[in-house]
Amino acid sequence: MSFEQESQQSQIERAIDRAYHNDGSVVDKLLEALSQISDRETRLRIIKALARFKERKIAAKFLYILQKDKDEEIKVKVASLLGLVGSSEISNQLLPYLADKNSQIRAGIAKSLSIIKDNNMVEPLIEAVKTEQNEEVLEKLLFALGVLADERATGILMEVLANSSNPARRNQAVLGLGWIKDRRAVDLLLEVMLNDEDEDVRSNAADALGEIGDKRVESALIQVLTGQPEIAHIAAEALGNLRSTKAVSPLLASILNKEQYIGTRFMAIEALEKIGDRSKEVFETLKNISNDNEMYEDTTLGSFALEVIEKLKRRDS
Hints:
mainly alpha
C-alpha cells in the first residue's frame, strides 16, 4: 500500500469513527469514498456508518448502488438499511426489488419498508405476500404489514394464520393482528389461543386479544388462566387491560394457588390493580399473601401485594 493509499484509508477510518459519534459533517467524505474504493469490507463499514444519518443524498446513493452495483453483498446491505436513511418518498422506488431474484435483497427491502411505515405500501405488500415462497422474506413482509397497523391487511393476515402450517409464519400473523386491533380477527384468535399446536402462537394470540380489547374474549381468557404458564401469564395481563370485572374472582384464585406459576400470580395482582376492584375480598386476599416471600424478578409476591393494596386505597380516597 502506497503512502497516499494509507493516508486515504486513515482518513476514511477517522470519518467512520466520527460518523459513529453522530458527526454529520463527514457524510460527503464517506459518500465520495464509497464511490472511489473497491474493497468490500471497507465499503460495508462505510455503508453502515452512513446509515446513522437520514438524508436524501444517502438514500439516493444507496438506491444507485441497489440498481447498478455488481457486488450482491453490498446490494443486500443497502437494501436492509434504506429504511434508516430514506422516507416515504422513496417507497415506490423500493417496490420493484420485492421481486428481485435475490431473496436476501427482497428480505432487506421488506425490512426497510417496515421501518419507513408508508401506508401506501399496504396493497403492494399484500400482493407480495401472496406470491412469496421464501420463508424469511415472507416473515418480513408479514411483519411490515403488521407494523403498518392498517385494517386492509387484516384479511391476508387472517388467511395466513388460518391456513399456514409454518408456526413462525402463523406467529408473525398473530403479532400483526394484535398491532392492527381489528375486531374481525377476534374469533380466529380465540380459536388459535385455545387450539394452536405451537405454544408461542397460542401465547401471542392471548396477547393480541388483550390488545384488541373486545369483551367477547373475557370468558376464553378466564378459561386459560389455569392452563399452560406462558398463556396463563398473558391471559392475566390481558384481563387486566380489559378491566374485566368478571375476572376478579378467577384472578384471586390464581393469586392464592401456590401451584400456579409465580409470574402468573404476579400478573394477576397487577391485573386487579388495573381493574380497580376495591372490594373486601380483594383486600383480604392481598393481605393474606403479604408474607409470601416467593420471588419474581426483583421483588416478593407479598411485598408486591402490599404495594397494590396501598395503590388501591389511594384510588379509593
